[in-house]
Design brief:
Blueprint (H helix, E strand, L loop, with lengths): L1 H65 L3 H36 L1 H18 L1 H6 L2 H24 L2 H10 L1 H20 L1 H9 L4 H42 L5 H13 L6 H13 L3 H25 L8 H15 L3 H17 L4 H29 L1
Length: 388
């Protein structure tokens, strides 16, 4: 009778554990959609709060040094930070849009240049191609035809005008969101102490302590990683932009921006773009351009070797296998952007684990598995006693 009761308990506890895990997996898409929707709604306040944490020390310094009212210090800091950063971002966006429009206008010429380059490479490699087996030759020809078809389809289906119209429709929403962001930022800087007390007051001391530890973990690990990667990405972008302009490359800003983005991805690097591009130029009879691209690549590599160890300490970052796993999962869930967000989300989850946010959940499953194990041991013991 006891064996039957123990077996029933094991089945119940096992089904409970499986149901919890399956329910968590099934509920995950709903949770993600809810969080995404909440993020969109509260995004101006979240950005304002993060920016207020960065500019509050500047406002404190102005207030102490010049004995100005807190509201005046808040306005001065906002003008300096938001105005300066906004001006730079607006100038970069304007230049990017101008280059994209130029690409769209000159796409037939670009398409013909790509075709001519491919024909030049084919002529230069014709002797080598002739030595290859016929099936490999057919694969190369098929690749060329697909590449040209992709370029032609891109030119045909490019919806630049429609995209511009969609952006224009969103302008009122962008304007309102920007106003809300600026007002929220002003109050969070001008009344920083009041906002901090209002946030902490309804929370328990244990929760506040955990949040403080979490802020430290995020600032130390996630913040340090992001700061280091952004610094390296900006320096890489400047090296690429200067080098490409020296080589008189068209659309240097777009190419430098895209290459710096690829360089920021772990396991990829700027060589993913620059090395094949250099090889193509050597084969197509442009050795000077090929050498120039190699010089840019080695300049980026040298810069990374010099500053990356100093910016990214041994306690910042993750094991390469975890980084690869987070990148792949991020890509499968969020496409290309997930390859950057994946490691950041995993580092954030590790920070949550370190401050003990998952302790109760882990403890629950530990007790559940220990209970199942004890029931199994009781069944084994009773069976052994019967056998004796």
């Amino acid at each position: 009778m006891n064996n039957k009761k123990n077996t029933l308990k094991i089945i119940v506890f096992s089904l409970l554990g499986i149901a919890l895990m399956v329910g968590t997996i099934d509920a995950l898409p709903l949770v993600v959609r809810f969080l995404r929707r909440a993020l969109v709604i509260f995004l101006p306040f979240i950005i304002a709060y993060i920016l207020s944490l960065l500019v509050n020390p500047m406002a404190d310094g102005l207030q102490k040094r010049f004995h100005l009212p807190r509201g005046v210090c808040a306005i001065l800091v906002m003008v300096l930070t938001v105005g300066f950063a906004g001006g730079i971002i607006a100038a970069i966006i304007w230049k990017i849009v101008d280059e994209i429009r130029s690409i769209y206008d000159n796409f037939p010429v670009i398409y013909q240049n790509i075709r001519n380059t491919w024909l030049t490479i084919s002529d230069n490699l014709s002797n080598i191609r002739a030595l290859l087996p016929e099936n490999i030759q057919s694969v190369i020809d098929s690749f060329y035809e697909q590449a040209m078809q992709w370029v032609a389809d891109f030119a045909k289906n490019a919806q630049i005008v429609e995209s511009a119209g969609n952006v224009a429709k969103k302008l009122p929403s962008i304007f309102i969101t920007s106003i809300v962001f600026l007002i929220a930022l002003y109050f969070m800087v001008a009344d920083s102490d009041t906002v901090s007390l209002a946030v902490k007051k309804p929370l328990s001391k244990r929760f506040v302590d955990r949040v403080s530890k979490l802020k430290f973990e995020i600032k130390h690990y996630v913040g340090g990683y992001v700061k280091a990667q952004l610094t390296i990405m900006c320096i890489t972008f400047l090296i690429l932009l200067i080098g490409l302009n020296i080589l008189n490359i068209e659309y240097a800003l777009l190419i430098a921006l895209a290459t710096a983005f690829v360089d920021a991805l772990p396991f990829f690097g700027s060589g993913t773009v620059l090395l094949p591009w250099s090889v193509i130029n050597f084969i197509s009879g442009k050795p000077k351009l090929g050498i120039g691209l190699l010089i840019i690549y080695f300049s980026v590599m040298l810069m990374r070797q010099m500053i990356e160890p100093k910016l990214i300490g041994k306690n910042v970052g993750m094991h390469p296998l975890l980084t690869l796993l987070s990148m792949y999962v991020g890509y499968r869930v969020l496409s290309i952007g997930g390859m950057i967000l994946g490691p950041l989300i995993l580092m954030f989850a590790i920070s949550l684990y370190k401050v003990g946010l998952f302790d109760d959940i882990i403890e629950f499953f530990k007790r559940l598995f220990l209970k199942i194990n004890r029931e199994i041991q009781d069944i084994k013991a009773s069976l052994n006693n019967k056998g004796d």
